[in-house]
Every structure is written in structure tokens, then in C-alpha cells.
């Protein structure tokens, strides 16, 4: 059953259904990934992998979606709670609260136009971080925050497609048996930030 989240458009899975639970009492969406699920279009020439599924809605022309993201311990390499964009298997992007091979939680972004452009962002010492994805004009923006108020610019990019783009939530477990990602303080607006680089 697909949960309904107050303040968000209706949600649907981008591919096969995954496991989702929404607690209306505290506003927490919990997504549980099974072993080996991820999205990747390897720039080194490896095969594509799209076994993960995002719980998403069609992105309007201008919007901002944010949430606090927590991932249950113990964590394994590359597991993540994700805010995701999906048009098709060659055009997608994700903003991740991910666990590195060095055992560090960090903000990671992947932008895919045929091949994936993968970039590590700041490390995160807290057990959670806030993530935000926005659409402004022809471009998309990723931000992160420690408190959900002061936002750090992470990335600005385009997706090379005219197809509708879905935006939403995902859990991935490329190397582990499972990943439980929790999203709360979920906020949605059909307005994008006025300034992408001033912390607002």
C-alpha cells in the first residue's frame, strides 16, 4: 500500500514496489531497501543498475522538497537515504546521506545523463542530515543542512531530457543486506529558493 503524506502530491513507485511505512503521528516515512538495490550508470563502463525504487510524484515546474534523513545503524558501504529525481534509466539524479568505504557518513550526489557523474560532498558527524532538492527554471539544485534552516549549496545541474521527472524518496543498499532510511520534517513548496547560494 502506498502511503499518503499530508502536503505532498500523490506518490507512486518509479519501478517495482518497495517497503514503505508512514507514521502520521510523528510524520515519519520509513523506507526499507532489500539487499543489493541501487541506481548507477557506471562511467567506467560497468553495467547499469536500477533495482532500487523511489516513492515519488511528478515534479512541478518550480518546487522545493526537503526532509531530515536518518539511516539506521549498523551501516554498510554506500547505504543511503535519498532524495531522488527520475525520468528514465539514462536521466536521473540523487542526493544521498550515504556511508563511505572509509566508514564516514556524508552527503553524496549523483547526476546521470547517460553516464553517472558521482561527487562526494561534506562529511556529516550527526546521525542525520537535512536534504533539499529544488527545481528552478531549467535547472535542478541540491542543498544540505544541519538544522533545516541554514542551507549549504551542494550542486546545480540539468537533466538532458524533455520527459516528466519524478521526485521523491528512496533507500539503497548496494553492499548490505538492507537499509532502513527514515524521512521526517518533510516540507514541500511549489516555490524554489530565491537565492541558491545565500543559505536560504
Largest sheet: 7 strands, antiparallel
CATH topology: Jelly Rolls
Instruction: Tell me the strand order in the biggest sheet.
Output: 1-6-15-8-9-10-11
What would the average pLDDT be, to the nearest integer? 97
Secondary-structure element order, N to C: EEEEEEEEEEEEEEEE
Shape: globular
Number of strands: 16
Helix content: under 10%
Q: Report the portion of residues in β strands.
A: over 45%
Total DSSP helices: 0
* Number of structural domains: 1
Can you characterise this structure?
The chain is an all-beta fold and about 200 residues long. It has one domain: Jelly Rolls (Sandwich), CATH 2.60.120.200. It is built from no helices and 16 strands. The strands form 3 sheets. It has a 7-stranded antiparallel sheet, with no helix packed on it. Strands 2-3-16-7-12-13-14 form a 7-stranded antiparallel sheet, with no helix packed on it. It has a two-stranded antiparallel ribbon with strand order 4-5. A hairpin with a 4-residue loop joins strand 2 and strand 3. The chain is globular, with a radius of gyration of 15 Å. The mean pLDDT is about 95.
Keywords:
200 residues; mainly beta; Jelly Rolls; seven-stranded antiparallel sheet; 56% strand
Amino acid at each position: 500500500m502506498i502511503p499518503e503524506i499530508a502536503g505532498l502530491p500523490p506518490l507512486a513507485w518509479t519501478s517495482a514496489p518497495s517497503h514503505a511505512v508512514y507514521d502520521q503521528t510523528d510524520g515519519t516515512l520509513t523506507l526499507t531497501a532489500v539487499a543489493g538495490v541501487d541506481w548507477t550508470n557506471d562511467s567506467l563502463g560497468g553495467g547499469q543498475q536500477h533495482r532500487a525504487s523511489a516513492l515519488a510524484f511528478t515534479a512541478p515546474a518550480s518546487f522545493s522538497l526537503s526532509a531530515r534523513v536518518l539511516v539506521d545503524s549498523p551501516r554498510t558501504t554506500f547505504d543511503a537515504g535519498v532524495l531522488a529525481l527520475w525520468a528514465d534509466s539514462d536521466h536521473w539524479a540523487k542526493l544521498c546521506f550515504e556511508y563511505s568505504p572509509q566508514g564516514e557518513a556524508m552527503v553524496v550526489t549523483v547526476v546521470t545523463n547517460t553516464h553517472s557523474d558521482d561527487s562526494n560532498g561534506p562529511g556529516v558527524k550527526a546521525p542525520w542530515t537535512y536534504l533539499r532538492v529544488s527545481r528552478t527554471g531549467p535547472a535542478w539544485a541540491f542543498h544540505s543542512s544541519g538544522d533545516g534552516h541554514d542551507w549549504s549549496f551542494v550542486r546545480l545541474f540539468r537533466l538532458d531530457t524533455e520527459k516528466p521527472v519524478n521526485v521523491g524518496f528512496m533507500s539503497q543498499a548496494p553492499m548490505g543486506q538492507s537499509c532502513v532510511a527514515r524521512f521526517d520534517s518533510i516540507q514541500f513548496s511549489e516555490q524554489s529558493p530565491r537565492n541558491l547560494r545565500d543559505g536560504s
